[in-house]
Amino acid sequence: MTAAVGTLLSGRYRLDAKIGTGGMSTVYRAFDTTLERQVAIKVMHNHIAGDADQLERFRREARAVAQLSHPHVVGVIDAGEDGGTQYIVFEYVEGETLKDRIRRLGKLPVSEAVAYAIEIARALGAAHEQGIVHRDVKPQNVLIDGEGSAKVTDFGIARTRDQAGLTMDGRVLGTTDYVSPEQALGHAVTGQSDLYSLGIVLFEMLTGDVPFKGEGQVAVAMKHVREDLPDVQIRRPEVSSALAAVVDKATEKDLDRRYADDRELAADLEEVLSIEFARSGQITGEATVVFKSLPAKTRRRVPASVAHPTRIFAVLALAAAVAVVLVLALKDNTSRGTRNAADPPARSEPGIKGVSFSQDAAHDYDPSGDQQEHPADVRNVVDGDPNTAWTTESYRGGTLSGKPGVGIYVDAHPSANGVKLQIDSPTPGWRGTIYGATKGPPKAITDPGWKAIGDIGRADRKTTVDLDGTPFRYYLIWIQSLPPGKESVAISEVRLYQRVMRPVARPSSAG
After folding, report:
1. Do 428 and 482 contact (CB within 8 A), yes or no?
2. Are 52 and 199 within one domain?
3. CATH number where 25 lies
4. Number of domains making up the chain
5. Neighbour count for residue 461 (Cβ, 10 Å)
6. How many separate helices (H) and strands (E) can be counted in the chain?
7. I need a labelling partner for 5 at 20 to 30 A (CA). Which of 13, 65, 128, 256 fits?
8. Host domain of residue 262
C-alpha cells in the first residue's frame, strides 16, 4: 500500500502526484510547505517496511547520498518517518530519464552520448571516493534536467565498501541488462562494477539498444558473463575507433583489463569528446557544456575556427586563396590511398578483437641515442585520430646516424595474445621489425627480453603484420631504415588484435 496523493508528511511535505514506482517504493512530486519549493519524495511501501533488511536498505540510501554533494548526483534534502511511513526527500529534477530520452530519440548524437557518459563517470567517481558503490547504474537511474545535464539518482541498493551485503538466498541485486559479470555471479562488487554498467549504458546511448537479449533475467545475466559484447562499430559505423576502445575497455569481463577507476575512464572519454569535436567541427547541447569543462590540454585538438568562431572571418580570404591547392592536394592523397577521418576503421576478423589501449599506453624507444624520440607525440598513435601522428626525429642523409634503429612501443597491460598488428603510416617505404616482451620493457634491443615476432619488409600506408598469438605485454615497432629520400618516419595509428578469450567463472567466496 502506498501513500495517497494529497497526504501531508510530517506536517510539511504535500504529495502532489506520482511520478514513478518500483518494487520497494513510490516516488512523488511533492511540495515543501515550509520552504515553498517542489521536491521529490521516495516513500517506502508500507507492506515491506516491516522487513528489517529492506528498511535498512532504504535508510542506507538516505545516509549514502547525504554524503555526496555533486552537480551530477540528485541530492538528498531530508529523510524521516510519519506514522510508520518511511520517506526520503530529494531535490526535484524537472525533465526526463536517460532511458526515456533513448526511447524517444533512439541513437543519441555521438558527442551527446560521450558527454553524458563523462557526467555519469564524474558522479560515480564522487560516490566511489566516499566508498559508495551504486550497484544499479542504468539509464532509468539517470535524470536529464531542463538544461540537459545528467544527474545520477536511486542509490537504493548502494552500499559502502565496509558494509556486509544484503543479498539473500543467491539473489543478485541490479538490473540484468546492465549487470557486471562479477555481480551476476554473486562475487564481490566494487566501483569497477559500476564502470562496467556505465559502459553498457554508453553502448545503449550509441546504438539505441542494450547489447544482450534473452528469455529472462537470468539468461541475460549469463550473457554478460559468457558472451562478447557486440561490436559497437558494426551497429553504428560512425563511432570512432577511440570511442569503441573506451566501450570495449569499460565492459571488459576481466577486471585486470577493465578501467581501474573513474578517473581513468573519464580521462579517455574526455579525449574522445575532444576528438569528436575536431572530427565534426561542431558539437551541440550538453556536449558543448561538458567540452568547456575539459582540461586545456585535452581541448588542444579542436580547430581554432570552432574553439574561437570570431576568428573565422579573419581567415576567409586566406582560405579562398589556398582552396585550389588544398583540393589538388586532397585529390593527390586520395589517389595514393590516404585514409582520412571519415573513412571507416579497419574491422577485426571473427574470433579476434582489438586491444583497448589507454591514452598513455604508447612510449618512444631510442636506446642507442638520447633516450628520447619525440615523447610528447606518442599518444597520437593510440588516440583513434588518423590526422595526428608520432614521428621519429629527423636524420639527415637518409640513415639513422649509426643507430641500429629507433621505435615506438605499446603497453598492452597486463598482456595480450596478439595475432595481428596494424600500423598506419603516412610515410611508407621504411623497413623494420616487430618485437614483443613480457617484462620491462628491456633497455636495449639486444636484450634477450625482446623477441622478434614479425617483419616489416617495406611499410605501406597501411601495414598488417601477422603474429602467432604468443602473449606479450609490450609490442615494439622497431624502425631500422628510413623511406627513400625521407629524413623521418611518421606513424599515425597502431592497432593490436588478439584472440577472443572466453572468461572463466571464478568460484564465489564463502560468507
Report:
1. no
2. no
3. 3.30.200.20
4. 4
5. 17
6. 12, 22
7. 65
8. 95-292
Return the DSSP state at 75: P
3-state secondary structure of 92: coil
Active-site annotation, residues: 136
pLDDT attached to residue 215: 85
Does any domain span residue 511? no
Torsion angle of the four alpha carbons 248, 251, 255, 260, in this order, in degrees rounded to the nearest 10: 80
Task: Provide CB contacts within 8 A for 271, sequence distance 6+.
Answer: 242, 298, 359, 383
User: Is 189 in the same domain as 262?
Assistant: yes
CATH classification at residue 424 = 2.60.120.260
Q: Is residue 505 one of the residues assigned to a domain? A: no
Q: What angle do CA 411, 422, 428 make, to 5 degrees?
A: 115
CATH number, residue 104:
1.10.510.10
Does 83 share its domain with 169? no
Mean pLDDT over all residues of the chain? 81
Last-in-domain residue among 51, 70, 91: 91
pLDDT category of residue 444 using cuts at 50, 70 and 90: very high
Tell me the C-alpha distance between 79 and 63, whole Å: 9
Helix (H, G, I), strand (E, B) or coil at 102: helix
* Angstrom distance (rounded) from CA 166 to CA 177: 21
Same-domain status, 100 and 31: no
Dihedral sign for Cα 371, 376, 381, 382, please: positive
pLDDT in tens, 252-296: 999 999 999 999 999 999 989 888 877 766 666 677 777 677 766
The mean per-residue pLDDT over the stretch 69-81 comes to 89
Query: 293 vs 338, which has greater pLDDT?
Result: 293
Span 334-359, mean pLDDT?
A: 55
pLDDT of residue 131: 86
DSSP letter (8 states) at residue 392: P
Residue 340 domain-assigned (yes or no): no
Interatomic CA distance for residues 447 and 441, integer angstroms:
10
pTM: 0.64
| Residue 326: C-alpha distances to residues 267, 331, 408 (Å) | 34, 8, 31
Q: Is 42 one of the annotated binding-site residues?
A: yes
Question: Collapsing DSSP states into helix, strand and coil, what is residue 511?
Answer: coil
507 within a domain of the structure (yes/no): no
The β-bridge relationship of strands 362-365 and 406-416 is: antiparallel
124 and 146 both lie in a single domain: yes
C-alpha 419, offset from chain centre = 25
* End residue of a domain, out of 59, 91, 123: 91
